[in-house]
Design a protein that fits this description.
Its main location: membrane. By secondary structure, the protein is an alpha/beta fold. The chain has 19 helices and nine strands.
């Protein structure tokens, strides 16, 4: 972590209980500054020589009453104390955790260069620009501290500078990454004690493209949303990596996400997290996130009763990559209790896939060329036909499954090529066997 030390005198601030601060010196204090519920017994000269606001406050007090009140200073008594120590020339250490509070407090106290050269605002700005914003982890820490200091941190552009710093680094070519970052999801060889060597020379480890994903998971939702929006706007990060980032954030912020089931927590909060994640998915890049990821989001969106637009978007995205799904992925529990599984949702997913295939075919015909995509489409149809046949075999075990639902899903892929129709025959056979015992379901 980067830090900057200011001043050279020893720290002579003393405390008397929880609500009194004073400077241990032979000179009696001649001003009392009330910050919230804390009283600071200080001296006019060092304070007024650097703070225009304190000059104004003191000039408005009675000659017999040298007591001023400050109740709205950002950062409260702690931030004020940093500023006061700077005025006295005492040693103050600034770091990523306290620099924003100090900067906002200095702005409040109007510690400008016009008051005195080399004032606190100037020194903090130098520290931010030369150290903090150049550091990956410090930029993230500083951004987190800005929330409790709004609107000051926003108006001073600390928030926007942090976000731009983070987004710029995340968009950089991984080969140029030379700073420390967190990466626990996929252990690197060096972390497992399996460093690769060749002729006694250590091989340079490749920085993964999603090296920045876990560190950003520490951000609260509103800040994460803004940072990710900045990253995607820059356009240098692929949809695949964006999908990795959103998947990691969902796993951290949505309880039970890895299992596709909400386990606990505030429903409204979880709904907001999920809807924000969906909103961050690149609109045009279908490579942003796997089909499995989209399906987990869809399952949770249904459970959390998210907006129809959110569920429709997830169905569209999932349906377009349906060939990647497994039967287990599609066995979504029904919320109505009428059937074991949510048949309607799966039917919509298949419809989305079919719609995409029709659109692709129309585009190929208009271009009048044979695209490599057509081969892929044929392969996708074979996979989806096999998937649907296997899915029908599973849901056919439900004695409450209406015949119409079974037929409708089967009909959607009836024209798709198959290596064999055995899967479909098994599904029909299973349905008939079950309904021989439950004829009222037909």
């Amino acid at each position: 972590m980067k830090f900057m030390k200011l001043g050279s005198k020893s720290d002579s601030f003393q405390t008397d209980g929880d609500n009194v601060r004073y400077v241990a010196t032979e000179l009696a204090s001649d001003i009392v500054v009330n910050v919230g519920d804390v009283k600071f017994y200080l001296h006019k000269f060092p304070l007024l020589s650097k703070s225009l606001r304190l000059q104004k406050l003191v000039s408005n007090t009675d000659e017999e009453n040298d007591e001023v009140h400050i109740h709205d200073i950002p950062g409260g008594p702690i931030a004020f104390e940093i500023c006061a120590k700077f005025c006295y020339g005492m040693v103050v250490t600034l770091n990523a955790y306290n620099v924003v509070a100090a900067r906002c407090a200095a702005e409040y106290l109007e510690m400008y260069e016009t008051v005195e050269k080399g004032n606190l605002i100037y020194k903090i700005e130098v520290f931010l620009n030369s150290s903090i914003f150049r550091s990956w982890k410090d930029s993230i820490i500083v951004l987190q501290t800005t929330k409790s200091l709004l609107p000051w941190s926003e108006e001073l552009k600390i928030v926007s500078h942090c976000m731009e710093s983070i987004a710029t680094k995340a968009s950089l070519d991984p080969s140029k990454v030379e700073w420390s970052y967190t990466y626990n999801r996929k252990k690197l060889p060096s972390e497992n004690g399996n460093d690769s060597h060749w002729n006694g020379v250590r091989k340079q480890l490749m920085v993964p493209k999603d090296w920045w994903v876990e560190d950003l998971c520490e951000l609260q939702l509103d800040l994460y949303n803004r940072v990710m929006s900045t990253i995607t706007t820059n356009g240098s990060v692929s949809g695949i990596v964006v999908g990795e980032a959103l998947s990691a954030y969902a796993s951290k912020r949505l309880p039970g996400f890895s299992k596709g089931v909400i386990q606990n927590g505030d429903i409204a909060k979880n709904r907001l997290v999920l809807e924000t994640i969906v909103g961050l998915l690149p609109a045009e890049d279908m490579g942003s996130g796997s089909c499995c990821f989209s399906l987990k989001l869809l399952k949770m969106a249904i459970q959390l009763e998210c907006e129809v637009s959110v569920r429709s978007e997830l169905m569209r995205r999932t349906g377009q990559r349906l060939e990647e799904a497994t039967v287990a992925d599609l066995l979504i529990s029904s919320s109505t209790g009428e059937t074991i599984y949510d048949i309607e949702t799966v039917q919509k997913l298949v419809e989305a896939f079919v719609a995409q295939e029709h659109q692709s075919l129309l585009e190929d015909e208009l271009q009048e060329i044979r695209s490599p995509k057509m081969v892929s489409n044929s392969s996708s149809k074979i996979k989806v036909a096999k998937l649907v046949d296997s899915y029908l075999a599973e849901i056919a075990r439900d004695p409450n499954l209406p015949l119409l639902n079974f037929v409708n899903i089967a009909d959607l892929v009836s024209s798709f090529p198959r290596q064999s129709h055995d899967g479909l025959y098994r599904a029909i056979d299973m349905y008939l066997k079950v309904n021989l015992f439950y004829p009222t379901c037909i």
